[in-house]
Amino acid sequence: MAAHQSTEWRTVCEKFRLAQELSEIESRKDPENNPFRSKYKARDLLKEIHCSLVKIHIEEEEEGEDDNEADGGSMQIAEGEPGNECGKTCTGDSPAGLRAARLAVLQYYLGVNHIETEELSAGEQHLMNCMKLIDKCTTTRENVSLFIQARNQLGILWAGRDEIEKAQGFLEIAESMYLLYMKEDGQPPLDLQDYFVSEGEELSQQEKIRSRFEMAYTHTLYYLAQVYKNLEQYERAGQYCHSTLQRQLEYKQFVPLEWAINAATLSQYYITKTRYMEARHCLAAASVIATLAGEIPSEAAAKESDAECEKREELLQKRSEIARCWIKYCLNLMQDAKKLLEDNIGELDLDRQEELKRARQNEEEEKEKGRKSAILFGSSDTFDSICSLEEKISSMLPLDFEEARSIFLVGQSYVAQAKEYFAMDGHVTDHIEILQDHSALFKVLAFFEQDLERRCKMHKRRVDLLEPICKDLNAQYYLLICRQLQFELAESYYEMMDLKLAVADKQDQPDVHTIKKFNNLCSSSMKYYQMFLDSIRSPEGKFPEKLEDEVLRPALVAKFRVARLQSKLISNNLATQLENLNHSLESYSFIVQYCEENPEAKKAVETELELSNEMVSLLPLKINRIRSNMASCN
Amino acid sequence: MASSSVKVAVRVRPFNSRETNRGAKCVIQMQDKSTCIINPKQPKDAPKNFTFDYSYWSHSSEEDPSFASQGKVYQDIGEEMLLHAFEGYNVCIFAYGQTGAGKSYTMMGKQDPGQQGIIPQMCEDLFRQTAENTDPDLSFSVEVSYMEIYCERVRDLLNPKSRGSLRVREHPIMGPYVEDLSKMAVTNYSDIADLMDTGNKARTVAATNMNETSSRSHAVFTILFTQRRHDHMTSLDTEKVSKISLVDLAGSERADSSGARGMRLKEGANINKSLTTLGKVISALADMQGTKKRRSDFIPYRDSVLTWLLRENLGGNSRTAMIAALSPADINYEETLSTLRYADRAKQIKCNAVINEDPNARLVRELKEEVNRLKELLLSQGLSNLITASGEHPHVFTPVINTRLRRSQCTETEKIIAELNETWEEKLRKTDSIRQEREALLAEMGVSVKEDGGTVGVFSPKRTPHLVNLNEDPLMSECLIYYIKDGVTRVGQEDVDIRLSGQFIKELHCVFCSEVSENNEGESDHVTFLTFTVSHKCKRYVTKDFCAFE
């Protein structure tokens, strides 16, 4: 084209380059009190270019007409035949199409400029102009990138105005536009930067163009993810977040640690949806990609320089965070299996186990294969590592002890890894949360264990994990954690007591040692329930007349359990028996009385209250029997 | 000792002169505890209503019977919080709101009588109450620290030597703390006021140098209040330590984390443009699912320092209040609405550390069996009259006293123990030496320290030429004073009398020449010439009264 060589065209290109620079680079240095200085300058330039361009086009068209007359008129063909797309006046790659696209690019940049300077309506107008210009043409390599980017911008614009469906419309068209183009052409399209290049200057490199084009589409998907989230279509939102991550990896447009944390976080979304195969894939990819962030600097290196120290901190922290996501994966997988397998008192239901095992063989594997291909992460270099990491742990619900144990062991190894960074020294809350997860892993593993002695030992491990920290923790700063620990310890001891009793029941005559042990477990459990209840008292030691919502049920349940434990203590001595039962009665009465005084509490503890009422009326009978026994003995 | 929930108050200020000049309309109405806001663009829409623990109408003046004065706000919130501190709770007051909405006025206020904010009133009250103590076995000590959180970095505002970012850590006994944050021993309110003032200076210097505004950083002023009781029987000291945190939260207009300037933090359907925020979208998605179903996932958090702050105040044994400052003007409608929404959400803030109990199923079955057994027994014995049990048992409990235990399992403990072993005298000495360093540093930069008497707020020396800084945050504005001495005063980055740093400051930025001349009445008068050394157009200014720089 003749115009390309002209000085005028060169000036246009130079101005365009300057406008880009002002908008992208200079604007960052604009002062606080005049934040859009460079943007306004860029805008003026764009407007100037627009004027010159219109002028050049008129000249070109005149020339073109001359040419057309000479060689039969290619323009007319373009205009006369609508082609396969009806309503289109010219093809995108015709001179007219290119002219339209060039003007459209200017409208696009003017639109973005106005939006960036908070003039939304004007920005919208320019973007719509841009769309109108290219809508006249068929979609080709020349304008597809512009098409997608303009729609992305309009999507953002309308979402900002709370017109989320409108935003969705623009973005979904951009999405299908990309898919169609890739199917029919697939070549890297003309980049927005390359519309204004004078002869002799080099166009952007193919790879760069490809990467920019793909990036624009990645953004389309990312914006759609947000649109669906705002429309409360969470399933789709998750899917689009997933695709965004996939594409970042595929086109190598990611920061390893950031990507890894995002993938790990996405795994937590899948966990709550009980989609463990997807969750596992995200986690495996997170672990692998995190290693791309480089070696963790040694402690010695960290001491030498602040930068190394910071890097070490960051890498250790992120890796530990990913490990914590793995722990949750293991824990939830086992807990979900437990929910399926337990009977109405929380024991393993053997019939159910058989049934599930049989059903599993047929179905799940088939189903998962289809699902799997859609979610795969991986560029060629990381794919194998991701797969081999996945193979280390199942994504199926464990149905027996062996399966549960293998998941437990993986979880436990991540516990160790997570604790490396989240040590007690400096990270109290996080460290304890990890220990609580570890305890929960033991607890759910115990469910699968059939041997009562071994099961008891697992609960003992929970006690060993939590008891030392519970003693050390200052309730002034960690009140809620203290309460959680006290409650969990009380329950662990309770569990052990129950198991010891079940074991003893199998023996004919429990020996003194067993009884002593049993009583100790009861007392320990009561001690922690009591500590929990004491934590509710005022600084003066007064128990509140009205319990706050979040402690209401736990406090009454603690009382209920204490009542039960008191009556369970074994003693040969009648006086001690009497004392224990009196204590028990007192605790049951407390619940009954509290609910009388605070009727709104009844709903929270219906079953417990009903039983407490019964016990309050029946226990005196037992007490009287002991009394009369004592009298007869004397 | 119930776990905390947040007490929330909102307060609306009068129009400022600019708003009055522009003929601004008031969009806020209040009645009792409720606050409503009218959309100036859609006045026909129903006003949005919010209910808080307190809605303070300070839009009018003292004469208005519904006017909420500084004293009233302190009585409602400050007094209660101080009482809790004496009881041994940690207390925390958050201030939130757009810059210029009156946050600083509510928290700090002005020096004039009746104009003091919550912080000065609370400190005065604290020292008054400790002075009234007559128990020889009871003693008190007060230490303060002041830090700033900006972009996840913690900076010590009281120690000039502390460089870079401090680490946030936790200790099982001492609770959450900031490593190496200086703690200054104080003995009266004026000490505190001085420290707060120098802290604000340090904050302003940093903000001015880095060309940032205070509205993007959180500032935390902490008063560590220790009550020590000597027990003659055991000759042991027990301590009750409570932490009073006064938090100035970053303004609601803070830029979006993508860094896009001019982007307003808005709720609703907004789309984040940059892929760097993908993590935010994913965490929100996971979080949403998690809370609906169960809390059994782990979401790597991003806003970690603030999370830590909230954790300390919501998860511990503490009492928390939040005051949101509102601008009444119609032009600030969007911001004010977003502040109200934030405050509304704060009401529901609860720590998610819930207690997960095991199901009672087995216990229930067991008990039911026992109930049946006992009932059978009852029937077989034909007993109908039961004797109810009596015999009250005194509840056994251990009084909760925060005793500083010494353990050596943690390496960090050694540092803390060393600190604990410091005597009060040593602490005061150390405080004084850091103060001297700080003053030396400020003096080196040309900021006057002594001459302005350490007062908070506006103070202009009458007859000496000087420079003051301007800042959109009234708390920071005019709090640095640079004197111009007679003769030549050089301003710039290196080897100068007044040191400024920042990207736009040249090595030798400008020179003031101040001459004393006799005026007509025979009084001495300063005439100051200002010469910019490096700027392309060399301008000379001659000033007489004062000049201000930004």
Layout: helices, strands, pairs:
The complex is a heterodimer of chains A (634) and B (550).
Chain A: H1 2-5, H2 7-24, H3 37-71, H4 74-80, H5 95-116, H6 120-135, H7 144-160, H8 164-184, H9 206-230, H10 234-250, H11 256-272, H12 276-291, H13 299-304, H14 306-341, H15 350-362, H16 364-375, H17 380-390, H18 401-421, H19 428-448, H20 452-472, H21 475-506, H22 512-534, H23 549-568, H24 574-597, H25 606-633
Helix pairs in contact in A: 2-3, 3-5, 5-6, 5-7, 6-7, 7-8, 7-9, 8-9, 9-10, 10-11, 11-12, 11-14, 12-14, 12-17, 14-18, 14-19, 18-19, 19-20, 20-21, 21-22, 22-23, 23-24, 24-25
Chain B: E1 6-12, H1 17-21, E2 28-31, E3 34-37, E4 48-51, E5 54-57, H2 70-87, E6 90-96, H3 103-107, H4 118-131, E7 138-150, E8 153-156, E9 168-171, E10 175-178, E11 184-186, H5 189-209, E12 218-231, E13 236-248, H6 278-293, H7 304-315, E14 318-326, H8 333-348, H9 361-381, H10 411-421, H11 424-444, E15 466-469, E16 481-483, E17 487-492, E18 498-499, E19 508-518, E20 524-532, E21 540-543, E22 547-549
Parallel strand pairs in B: 1-5, 1-14, 6-13, 6-14, 15-22, 17-18
Antiparallel strand pairs in B: 2-3, 3-4, 7-8, 7-11, 7-12, 9-10, 12-13, 15-16, 17-19, 19-20, 20-21
